[in-house]
Amino acid sequence: MPTLEEEIRRLMTEGTAGLHAAPDLMGRVVRSTRERRRRIRIAAAAASVAASVVATPAVAFFTVGTTPTAVERSTFTTAPEPPAIDDTPSMPSAPPSLGDLGDGREFGRMKVGYLPDGLEWSGRSADWGDTYHVSYVYRGDDKGSYRVVITVYEGSAVEEVERRIAAYRDEADGEAVTVGGRSGYLVVQHVGEDGMKGTPTLFLRTSDSQWAEIGFSPVYAEEYSGTEAVDAELLRIGRGLTSTM
Amino acid sequence: MSDLEHDFGAFVAARATSLLRVAYLACGDATEAEDLLQTALERTYRKWDRVARYDNPDAYVRRVIVNAAINRARRRAILTIIPMHSPPETAVRAGDPDLFQVLMGALRALPPRQRAVIVLRYWEDLTETQTAEVLGCSVGTVKSQASKAMAKLRSALGRETLEGAITDAHA
């Protein structure tokens, strides 16, 4: 009698025998890659023009990409390859921000009691109503980057967090923790498709109807001596969070 | 055609079908598998000058495919755009002519990482250590995930019933 493993292997082999890669696959890959590079170069050129011609009306800005000038073409050759584009569907529009948060230590219905040395509010935040977040960076970091991001979930959005934690728990991914008497979950999320290490994250229940998600960027996590040091710092930040609900 | 394109073309011609099968088993949908494969190959092509120097470029593409399949499945679960597949409600009938579809149904019902472990261990014949490297987790996690997945497959398929069906099919 074959083992279950052997039968699974046999069924997989027989069941996929009829699958064959499309003959035009190579062509599609090459065309798609070229198209992607073209879009990136046009976007880079448009951004470059927008930055140098501050007073240019928006309508002129958008017409640049279709008929590039010699100056723009020279910009194309120097445009750096950006990081791999994730296939996450883009948001329909940018959400409103939480406004001027001062030092960023209090936002929405959350107070931040501890931040690692050198980090300050990035000046950016987003507010979707029952979900909002704030990010922290080193002074001088690139605009748009982050070191630490704190996302707060309230009301019905809490269900989303609990679903995600349940999924991690089901896969034995991450571990449950207790932070100052509050329940939480430590996990490395979003394991990179290109071999990146992912985002060390602490989920923390800050009140009956509120969760916080504290995430380190993979780049920032590398500043620490290892996983334990990263987790300790996440827990320290978590311990300092106070709900004002 | 440049040397780079020529080399990459040879790799695609030799390996694309095998990689498509990995993608299909990892995601459970033929159309999504083609999309996963194309996306993975595009990423590979952009880095081909580096990836081509690896001992086994296959492993790189496989890693992209499997992790992309996991991420997409998780995203779907989070966004609840597509309802999760449910395990078969009835046990496999003896003599079921399409055991593979039963297996795929059970595979789809697994959490994405457990499904990936099964595909890598039993389709790709990777060791536990190699599987852990692909998934970016510990060998212990691979063991526990494989154990849980096998228990679910055994339960969902009904090992005794499955064995009966296999015997009938072979008769």
TrEMBL record, chain A:
Keywords: Membrane, Transmembrane, Transmembrane helix. The keyword Transmembrane applies. The chain crosses the membrane at residues 42-64. It comes from the Bacteria. Residues 77-102 are annotated as: Disordered. It comes from Nonomuraea fuscirosea. This is Uncharacterized protein.
TrEMBL record, chain B:
One of its GO terms (molecular function) is sigma factor activity. The keyword DNA-binding applies. Keywords: DNA-binding, Sigma factor, Transcription, Transcription regulation. InterPro entries: RNA_pol_sigma-70-like, RNA_pol_sigma-70_dom, RNA_pol_sigma-E_actinobac, RNA_pol_sigma70_r2, RNA_pol_sigma70_r4_t2, RNA_pol_sigma_r2, RNA_pol_sigma_r3/r4-like, WH-like_DNA-bd_sf. One of its GO terms (biological process) is DNA-templated transcription initiation. Residues 102-153 form the RNA polymerase sigma factor 70 region 4 type domain. It comes from the Bacteria. The keyword 4Fe-4S does not apply. Residues 17-77 form the RNA polymerase sigma-70 region domain. Belongs to the sigma-70 factor family. ECF subfamily. PANTHER family: ECF RNA POLYMERASE SIGMA FACTOR SIGM, RNA POLYMERASE ECF-TYPE SIGMA FACTO. This is RNA polymerase sigma-70 factor (Sigma-E family). The lineage of its organism: Bacteria, Bacillati, Actinomycetota, Actinomycetes, Streptosporangiales.
